[in-house]
Amino acid sequence: MLTEIINGLIKLLGPIATLSKDKRELKDSALRAISNALDETFLYYRDINNGKARNLEREALLVKYWSAASIPIRHLDEELSIICNQKAEYWLNPEEYNREDIAELGIGLDSVRDAYRKILDPYYSTFKTRKKN
Question: How far is residue 32's CA from residue 9's CA, in Å, rounded to a whole number?
Answer without folding.
Answer: 35
